[in-house]
């Protein structure tokens, strides 16, 4: 098993994108999101309502892809974007537009109390808020939104890494999603196998 640090993962992705002539980033995101959606389809009942919470960066982009594939297979999916439109950039913006083009609805959520009210109606929340670049204290309002997700009686699925959790083993945890299941993308990160960070991952799945 190949275990990576955040720096090593960024280098792997950079090499793949450069070798792919500029299109590889979108394809990597498409492949990652479709595989996570496949695992969700295989492991969870189609009558369970799914909320996908979207942040900036590649993790959020994965969330848009996951939503497309789940809807196409018959799941009831709602998207909640927790950051401003300006923070959805590059490949993530591309996949957001694909979701919009298929008449996909996105609800913008700006406060933790608002997110809490919305998520009460769902059985599963897919965490696509923060990726592997986390370091130090999580900023508001995301910090309180993570707290809300942890407090609710809901199945929590993390995409690649629970939001708020550092990828490496040498950084303190401020607050992070306590996932029931984490679907790893490409390679597991160091924190998946270290105490006290491994407990945030729940069960591990792999693409």
From TrEMBL:
EC number(s) stated in the UniProt entry for this protein: 5.1.99.6
Catalytic activity: (6R)-NADPHX = (6S)-NADPHX; (6R)-NADHX = (6S)-NADHX
Cofactors named for this entry: K(+)
Cofactor note text: Binds 1 potassium ion per subunit.
Positions bound to K(+): 59, 127, 163
One Gene Ontology term of the molecular function aspect: metal ion binding
Occurrences of domain YjeF N-terminal (ranges): 9-207
InterPro entries for this protein: YjeF_N_dom, YjeF_N_dom_sf, YJEFN_prot_NAXE-like
EC class of the enzyme, as a word: isomerase
Sorted UniProt keywords: Isomerase, Metal-binding, NAD, NADP, Nucleotide-binding, Potassium
Residues reported to bind (6S)-NADPHX: 58-62, 131-137, 160
Similarity-based family: Belongs to the NnrE/AIBP family.
HAMAP family to which the protein is assigned, alphabetical: NADHX_epimerase (MF_01966)
Function: Catalyzes the epimerization of the S- and R-forms of NAD(P)HX, a damaged form of NAD(P)H that is a result of enzymatic or heat-dependent hydration. This is a prerequisite for the S-specific NAD(P)H-hydrate dehydratase to allow the repair of both epimers of NAD(P)HX.
Name of this chain's protein: NAD(P)H-hydrate epimerase
Organism the protein comes from: Gracilibacillus boraciitolerans JCM 21714
Gene name as annotated: nnrE
């Amino acid at each position: 098993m190949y275990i990576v640090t955040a720096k090593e993962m960024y280098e792997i992705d950079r090499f793949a994108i450069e070798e792919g002539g500029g299109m590889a980033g979108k394809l990597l995101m498409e492949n990652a999101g479709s595989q996570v959606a496949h695992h969700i389809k295989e492991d969870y009942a189609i009558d369970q309502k799914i909320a996908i919470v979207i942040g900036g960066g590649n993790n959020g982009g994965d969330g848009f892809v996951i939503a497309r594939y789940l809807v196409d297979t018959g799941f009831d999916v709602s998207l909640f974007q927790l950051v401003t439109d300006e923070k959805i950039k590059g490949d993530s913006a591309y996949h957001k537009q694909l979701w919009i083009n298929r008449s996909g609805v996105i609800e913008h959520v700006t406060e933790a109390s608002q997110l809490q009210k919305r998520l009460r109606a769902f059985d599963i929340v897919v965490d696509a808020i923060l990726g592997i670049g986390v370091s130090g204290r999580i900023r508001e309002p995301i910090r309180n939104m993570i707290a809300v997700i942890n407090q609710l009686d809901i199945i929590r699925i993390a995409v690649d890494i629970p939001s708020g959790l550092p990828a490496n083993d040498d950084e303190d945890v401020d607050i992070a999603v306590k996932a029931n299941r984490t679907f790893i993308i490409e390679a597991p990160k160091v924190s998946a196998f270290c105490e006290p960070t491994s407990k945030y991952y729940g069960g591990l799945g792999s693409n």
